[in-house]
Design goal:
By secondary structure, the protein is an alpha/beta fold. About 35% of the residues lie in helices and about 20% in strands. The N terminus is likely disordered. Bound molecules: NADPH dihydro-nicotinamide-adenine-dinucleotide phosphate (NDP).
C-alpha cells in the first residue's frame, strides 16, 4: 500500500489516501511544505505530473508563485535567525539525521515506486538510489562530529582558531534525472551543518522530494528548517534565487541555467555552488581487457537512459582495438533489457518525457547529417510495452569526430560516439576539447599509463578500469563549465559553511 498526502485537508488522518500500488494509477495531489505545514499555492494553481512509461498524468502538484517563495524564505529565515536548529550541538543534529535516514529506509519501497513512476527509472535503480539517499543522511550525520577547525600560530601574543558556521538560508534546486538522490546530496549536508533549507525539485519529477517533507517532521526537524516548494524554474526558481533572504544557492542542472543563476546571485553576492552538464570521455587503450571494458561501458553511457551528467558519451578507442570494442559494445547493448520501469528485470526505461525523447532523436538525425555512421539503434520504440511511453533504442555512432556537434553538446540521452585514436597526446587534447569537464573513464592494464593520462584529463572525477566514479564519501563536481564547488564527501560540508577566524589576545605581558 502507498500512502500519499492530499492537498488542503485539515489533519493528518484526512491527509492520507491509501491505494494499492498494483492497481497503481490513482491521481494524487500535493501541496507545498512551508513552516512544517502542507499548504496549497496562494493562487490555488497546480500543475500535472506525468508517468513517462505510459504518458499519463499521475499527480497534481501545487504551482508555487512569488508569494509562496517569499513565505518559504521567511519561514527558513525565521528558523535560522531565531530557531534552535543552528544552535544545537552537532551531535544533536546528527541524531536527527540518523532518524531521518532510518525513516527513508522504512519508506524505501514507497519512495522508489513513486520515483520510478515519475521518472521512468527502472525500479531496481530507484531502490538503489533511495537507499543511497538514506546512506547520504547517515554519512553526514556521522561526518559532522568529525568536521572541525584549526588552531593557527599567529604573529601576535594570543590564540587563533577557526570554526565552521552555517551559511544561513540555503536554496537547493535539483534536476529531474536523479530527483531523490540529488535532493539528499544537498539537503543532508545543508541541514547537518545547521542551515535552514528551501528545496525546489524539478517540475517533471517533484514527487520523491516531497517525501522528505513528510519524513522531516517525524525525524524531528523543527518547523521552517526544511521547506519544499514545487513550481516552474523560470518563475518560482528564479524568485528563490533572487530573494534577498537566501544566503546560499546549491544547484544541479543545465550549464545554461547555472549561468543564469550565477548572474542573478551576483546581485547580492550569494554563495553559489553549481553541478552542471558533462560530455565525458571513455578512453580505451589497446592493452586493456577490451571485451571487459566494452561490457562495462554500456551502462556507463546508457544508465538512466543516458540522462546522466556523467554519461561517458564519447568513447576514444585505440585504432587497433576499435572494431573489437565496437562489436563487443553493440553485442552487450543488444542484451540490455529496455522495458517497463516497474519490472525488476528492466535495465533501461523510457526517457523522462516525449520532449526529451524527441530532442535525442533530433541529435541522432544530426549525427547522421554530420557524417557519423549510425552503427546501432537510435529508433523510437512504439510496439507493445513501448506503445505509450517515451522509449528510444540506445544508439551507437562510429567514425564520429570530436569536432561534431554530437561530440560537443550534451545530448542527455542514450547516444555513444566512438572516436578512433592512434596518438595519446592528440587523444588527450580531444578529450579535453569540450567546454565540459565532469567525469570520465579510462581502461588500461598499464599503471603508469593510467596515472599519466588520469593526471592530464581535465575533469572533476575519473574512473580507471571502472564506469563508477561517484561515491557519497568522495568529492563530486566539475571543472570548466561543468560547475563550481563539490558535492559529497567532507568537501560538501565546506559548501554549506563559512569559515570564521577568531583571535584571542592574551596581553602584552610575557
Ligand atoms: P535545468 O537546468 O533545466 O533544471 C534544473 C532545476 O533548475 C529544475 O528544478 C528547474 O526547474 C530549475 N530551474 C530552471 N530554470 C531556473 C531558473 N531560471 N532559476 C532557478 N531555477 C531554475 O536542468 P534539467 O532539470 O533539465 O536537468 C538536466 C541537466 O542537469 C543536465 O544538463 C545535466 O547534465 C545536469 N545535471 C548535472 C549534474 C551534475 O552533478 N553535474 C547531475 C545531474 C544533472 P523546472 O524543472 O521547473 O524547470
Amino acid at each position: 500500500m502507498l500512502s500519499i498526502y492530499l492537498a488542503g485537508v485539515p489533519n493528518e488522518k484526512d491527509c492520507t489516501v491509501d491505494f494499492e500500488i498494483e492497481k497503481g494509477m490513482a491521481m494524487t495531489t500535493h501541496d507545498l511544505f512551508i513552516q512544517g505545514k502542507w499548504v496549497p499555492a496562494q493562487t490555488g494553481e497546480t500543475f500535472e505530473v506525468m508517468n513517462p512509461a505510459v504518458t499519463e498524468p499521475i499527480a497534481q502538484v501545487a504551482k508555487a508563485g512569488e508569494r509562496d517563495v517569499d513565505d518559504a524564505v521567511r519561514a527558513a529565515r525565521k528558523a535560522f535567525d531565531e530557531g534552535p536548529w543552528p544552535k544545537m550541538l552537532a551531535s544533536q543534529r546528527a541524531s536527527v539525521l540518523f532518524r531521518f535516514a532510518n525513516l527513508i529506509r522504512e519508506n524505501l519501497e514507497e519512495i522508489a515506486q513513486a520515483e520510478s513512476r515519475n521518472v521512468g527509472k527502472p525500479i531496481s535503480d530507484s531502490r538503489d538510489e533511495v537507499g543511497a539517499g538514506a546512506y547520504c543522511f547517515e554519512y553526514y550525520a556521522g561526518a559532522i562530529t568529525k568536521f572541525f577547525g584549526e588552531t593557527i600560530p599567529v604573529s601576535k601574543q594570543g590564540f587563533d582558531y577557526t570554526i565552521h558556521v552555517p551559511c544561513g538560508v540555503v536554496a537547493a534546486i535539483v534536476p529531474w534525472n536523479f530527483p531523490f538522490a540529488m535532493a539528499c546530496w544537498k539537503v543532508a549536508p545543508a541541514l547537518v551543518t545547521g542551515n535552514a533549507v528551501i528545496l525546489k525539485p524539478a517540475s517533471y519529477t517533484p514527487l520523491s522530494a516531497l517525501f522528505l517533507g513528510r519524513l522531516a517532521q517525524e525525524a524531528g526537524i523543527p518547523d521552517g528548517v526544511l521547506n519544499i516548494i514545487t513550481g516552474p524554474g523560470s518563475t518560482a526558481g528564479n524568485a528563490l534565487v533572487a530573494h534577498p533572504g537566501v544566503d546560499k544557492i546549491t544547484f544541479t542542472g543545465e550549464t545554461a541555467t547555472g549561468c543564469t543563476i550565477m548572474k542573478t546571485a551576483a546581485e547580492d553576492i550569494k554563495r553559489v555552488s553549481l553541478e552542471l552538464g558533462g560530455k565525458s570521455p571513455n578512453i580505451v587503450f589497446a592493452d586493456a581487457d577490451v571485451e571487459h571494458a566494452a561490457r562495462n561501458s554500456v551502462m556507463g553511457v546508457y544508465g538512466n537512459c543516458g540522462q546522466d551528467c556523467c554519461a561517458r558519451s564519447r568513447a576514444f578507442v585505440e585504432q587497433s582495438v576499435y572494431d573489437e570494442f565496437v562489436d563487443a559494445f553493440i553485442d552487450q547493448t543488444r542484451k540490455t533489457l529496455i522495458g517497463d520501469p516497474m519490472d525488476d528485470a528492466t535495465q533501461i526505461g523510457p526517457m523522462v518525457s516525449m520532449h526529451q525523447r524527441d530532442t535525442v532523436r533530433g541529435y541522432i538525425e544530426l549525427g547522421q547529417k554530420e557524417g557519423a555512421t549510425l552503427a546501432y539503434g537510435g529508433e523510437i520504440l512504439t510496439d507493445g510495452t513501448y506503445a505509450k511511453g517515451s522509449y528510444i533504442r540506445p544508439a551507437v555512432f562510429t567514425q564520429a569526430t570530436n569536432a561534431m556537434r554530437i561530440s560537443q553538446e550534451e545530448i542527455f540521452g542514450p547516444v555513444l560516439n566512438v572516436i578512433p585514436f592512434t596518438d595519446e597526446d592528440e587523444m588527450i587534447r580531444q578529450v579535453n576539447g569540450t567546454k565540459y569537464g565532469l567525469s570520465g573513464s579510462l581502461w588500461t592494464n598499464d599503471l603508469s599509463k593510467a596515472l599519466r593520462v588520469a593526471n592530464q584529463v581535465r575533469s572533476g572525477v575519473l574512473g580507471v578500469n571502472s564506469s563508477s566514479s561517484v561515491f557519497i564519501e568522495a568529492p563530486f563536481g566539475g571543472f570548466k563549465q561543468s560547475g563550481i564547488g563539490r558535492d559529497l564527501g567532507m568537501n560538501s560540508l565546506l559548501n554549506f559553511t563559512e569559515v570564521k577566524n577568531v583571535f584571542i589576545f592574551l596581553g602584552d605581558k610575557k
